[in-house]
Amino acid sequence: MREVLVDFITTLDGYASGEGWPGFWGLEGPEYLAWLSSQPEVSYLMGANTYRLMSGFAAGEVPPGQEEFSEEEAGSLDQLTKAPKYVFSNTLEEPLAWANSTLVRGDAVEAVRAMKAEGEGILGTLGSLTLARSLLVGGVVDRFRVVMFPVITGATGEERIYDGYPDVALEMTDHATFDGGIQLVEYRPRVLDRPPLATS
Fold first, then answer.
1. ω into residue 95 within 30 of 0, thus cis?
2. Using an 8 Å Cβ cutoff, are 5 and 123 in contact?
């Protein structure tokens, strides 16, 4: 059976990106990049907005304020292009231009539940905050991983990750520190009906 991994890269204060900041907030180091390159292959799950953004990057569109992709960013985009990608959208139309992308319509939770039962390997989210939240609430997430970069973007942060989330208990299954400041934590999540001290 496949595992579903929600995988976020964040600032310490829980933002997915920040205006004026480069990819990885410019803080990726050799230990973190080596860990990234050692990860097993993933079939990616994403929503329409992430697909539009990432497929644009793969086609050569560079983020505002950036003249070109770094070598590491270009390598990541190449890996993403080669990987299987499932795009959940009722607005995009086939055929999808980005190689190895499959359009999935309808209920994302039920679709992922069916995909989990097929074969082996990892189904991992890529960005797609709304999709990741839906999969967590729907009870299909096996692993919840966050890599926190040592920066707070209180003034410029964009895309607050945990807004709209339910209460979730997290059982730690892995952790690591890279390059003296990048912190990885991985958990087994359990959505709570109510917090421990709630009376009803």
1. yes
2. yes
Write out pLDDT tens, residues 61-70.
887 777 888 7
Which residue has 């900041």 as its token pair?
A: 21
Residues 6+ apart with CB under 8 A from 143: 3, 4, 5, 6, 173, 186, 187, 188
Mean pLDDT of the chain: 93
Tell me if residue 32 falls in helix, strand or coil. Answer: helix
Could you give the C-alpha distances from 174 to 45, 120, 139, 157, in angstroms and in order? 22, 21, 21, 27
CA distance 117 to 11: 34
**Amino acid code (one letter) for 100:** N
All domains of the chain in start order, with CATH: 3-191 (3.40.430.10)
CA distance 19 to 37: 27
Dihedral class, residue 112 (left if φ above 0, else alpha if ψ from -120 to 50, else beta): alpha
SS3 content of the chain, % helix, strand, coil (to 5): 25, 30, 40
Q: Rounded to an integer, what distance in angstroms lies between the CA atom of residue 111 and that of residue 26?
A: 36
d(CA 114, CA 85): 16
Q: Is the pTM of this model over 0.85?
A: yes
